[in-house]
Design brief:
alpha/beta; two-stranded antiparallel sheet; binds zinc ion; eight-stranded parallel beta barrel; single chain; 9 helices; TIM Barrel
Length: 288
């Protein structure tokens, strides 16, 4: 059974994201548990939790996923920013736990003025600090692969593997694979020869049991461009051929998938793009 959904806005309440997901025909939903461009956040009330949990149950939306703030940089050599990022990651996990969300996706970080090796170590240290402060938290961090813009880390699967290996509790860390970011970082999804190479790299460096979520986005920019621009499914450089390979792969199709594509209306069909993209993914999976 496929689990496909999209990132949805929490404007008006967490349950609103669930309602929007159901409205679009999603099986699952991703959301921010706070404003993604601010450090501060209002506390989550019991009422927020009840409404969110009720909406999930009644609307049959499963696999809720949290995405952490974009301000967090666990690789930063700037001590105040690094400390703030750790504090913020603690809050992200606490908020997810409170809402009953099992995973929080975070971009590993950017090393800015230091080096790749130093950056990878800092990320692992930061994760260790977060874990030490939350010894009983069930919500887990998922490191997302990146496009590799600037000094951002995690674009090579080996880098994600290295961070996890350096953590004191690697069993508390999973991975979210973004198809657009992977392509931008050089991992092809078609033709079959490139797809096989990408899958082998995922299996070797990450392992299927560690991949808890997929971000299904097509890419405006070509393979290896190291530039992150999401496109609608089949309208980018991954194309229908790439997504057909993804949707029909026995390992990948078991993983919950979340769209992070623009939220406008498709002028071709007059339908919201989420509806169109979900239909495209289901068709390519052979499950129309
Ligand atoms: Zn993503
Ligand atoms: Zn992206």
């Amino acid at each position: 059974m496929l689990t496909i959904g999209a990132h949805m806005s929490i404007a008006g309440g967490y349950y609103k994201a669930v309602e929007a997901a159901a409205e679009a025909g999603c099986d699952c939903v991703q959301l921010f548990t706070k404003n993604n461009n601010q450090w501060r956040a209002k506390p989550i009330t019991d009422d927020d939790v009840d409404r969110f949990q009720n909406a999930l149950k009644t609307l049959r939306i499963r696999a809720p996923l949290s995405h952490a703030s974009y301000l967090i940089n666990l690789a930063s050599p700037d001590r105040p920013l690094w400390d703030k990022s750790i504090d913020s990651m603690v809050v992200e996990l606490e908020r997810a736990e409170r809402l009953g969300i099992p995973y929080v996706v975070v971009h590993p970080g950017a090393y800015t003025t230091t080096s790749e090796a130093r950056g990878l170590r800092k990320i692992a240290w930061a994760i260790d600090r977060v874990h030490r402060r939350l010894p009983h938290c069930r919500a887990q961090i998922l490191l997302e692969n990146t496009a590799g813009q600037g000094t951002t880390l995690g674009w090579k699967f080996e880098q994600l593997a290295r961070i996890i290996e350096l953590c004191r509790h690697p069993e508390r860390v999973g991975v979210c694979v973004d198809t657009c970011h992977a392509l931008a970082a050089g991992y092809g999804w078609s033709p079959p020869s490139q797809f096989d190479t990408t899958l082998e790299a995922l299996e070797t460096h990450i392992g299927w049991n560690r991949i808890r979520a997929l971000h299904v986005n097509d890419s405006m920019k070509p393979r290896g461009s190291r530039v992150d621009r999401h496109a609608h499914i089949g309208h980018g450089q991954i194309g229908e051929s790439g997504f057909r390979n993804i949707m029909r792969n026995a390992h990948l199709r078991k993983i919950p998938m979340y769209l992070e594509t623009p939220k406008s209306t498709d002028p071709g069909t007059g339908q919201p793009w989420d509806v169109v993209n979900l239909a495209t993914l289901r068709r390519l999976a052979g499950e129309e």
